[in-house]
Amino acid sequence: MGPDPVIRLDKWLWAARFYKTRTLAHEAIENGRVVLNGARTKPSRSPRIGDELTITRGQLRHVVIVRGLSDAELDRSGKVLVDVPAMTAAQAIEGILINHVNEHLGSIRATTGAK
C-alpha cells in the first residue's frame, strides 16, 4: 500500500461534507474552530489517516478520526472518510439540548427582531 494522498485540510473538510464550501472550511480553520491532533493548524496542512479533528460549530464540538482521504465531494452514500468516537449518553443529550436551545433562541430573535 502506498503513501497517503496529499490533500489540503480545507478541501478534505469540504469533501467530507463538514462545510458547504471550501471557503467556509478555510475560514473555520483560520479562526481556530478546527483543531488537528489537539493543535491549531493551517488550511494547507494535509491530514493523515488516523488524525483526530475537533470541529467546533457554535456550542457543539465534533471529534472525528480521519478514516480516508479524498478531495472529491462525496454523495450521501459515499465511502466513509471519518469515524466518530462513541460519546456518552450525557454528551449526546447535552448536544441535543444545546441544539434545541439554540434553535429556540433563533426563532425568538427572528420574531422579535432581537440580535
Structural features, described:
With 115 residues, this protein is an alpha+beta fold. The chain folds into 2 domains: 1-84, RNA-binding S4 domain (Structural Genomics Hypothetical 15.5 Kd Protein In mrcA-pckA Intergenic Region, Chain A); 86-115. Helix content is 35%, strand content 17%. It has 3 helices and 5 strands. A 5-stranded antiparallel beta sheet has the order 2-1-3-4-5. A hairpin with a 2-residue loop joins strand 3 and strand 4 (60-66). The longest helix is centred in the C-terminal third of the chain and has 24 residues, at 89-112. Mean pLDDT is 76; it is low at 75-80.
Approximate shape: globular
What sequence of helices (H) and strands (E) makes up the elements?
Answer: HHEEEEEH
CATH topology of the largest domain: Structural Genomics Hypothetical 15.5 Kd Protein In mrcA-pckA Intergenic Region, Chain A
Low-confidence stretches: 75-80
Largest sheet: 5 strands, antiparallel
Number of strands: 5
Class by helix and strand content?
alpha+beta
CATH evolutionary superfamily of the largest domain: RNA-binding S4 domain
End-to-end gap: 53 Å
What's the architecture of the largest domain in CATH terms?
Answer: Roll
Q: What number is the mean pLDDT?
A: 76
| Spatial ordering of strands, largest sheet | 2-1-3-4-5
User: Gyration radius, to the nearest Å?
Assistant: 16 Å
**Into which percent range does the helicity of residues fall?**
25-40%
Number of self-contained structural domains = 2
- Count of helical segments? 3
In what range is the share of β-strand residues? Answer: 15-25%
CATH top-level class of the largest domain: Alpha Beta
